[in-house]
Write a structure and sequence with these properties.
Number of helices: 0
Shape: globular
Oligomer: single chain
Mean pLDDT: 96
Number of strands: 11
Distance between the termini: 37 Å
Structural class: mainly beta
Helix content: under 10%
């Protein structure tokens, strides 16, 4: 599984960004997907996850109501719409994939990772 994240950048507080994660090297869409983020000096933090059929969605407490995860399986792409961004959202954002089910997602639940994309929110 190869994952390519894109869409990061710099934005002012209150602004929006949409991250994309393109999945390749697979023969089916049966992968659960997630976004995690990591700020300098901090542990990797769960942001959002979506099951392969989009029936199971989870969000980290700090992003609920502001971020939305979605997927378009025919494009093998997962999105993270981020609205009302705050300076504390500044981090490198990573997408991850795995076929195992998730409940309270942690990095250990996902075996495939892409390179991150930097999101910087200025105050």
């Amino acid at each position: 599984v190869q994952l390519q994240a894109s869409g990061g950048g710099m934005v002012q507080a209150g602004g929006s960004l949409r991250l994309s994660c393109a999945v390749s090297g697979v023969t089916d869409n049966g992968y659960n997907m997630a976004w995690f983020r990591q700020a300098p000096g901090k542990e990797r933090e769960f942001v959002a996850a979506i099951s392969w059929g989009a029936t199971n969605l989870r969000y980290g407490d700090s992003v609920k109501g502001r971020f939305t995860i979605s997927r378009v399986n025919v494009r093998r792409t997962v999105y993270l719409q981020m609205n009302n961004l705050k300076p504390e959202d500044t981090a490198v954002y990573y997408c991850a994939a795995d076929k195992r089910s998730f409940y309270n997602p942690t990095p250990a639940d996902f075996g495939s990772w892409g390179h991150g994309t930097q999101v910087t929110v200025s105050s």
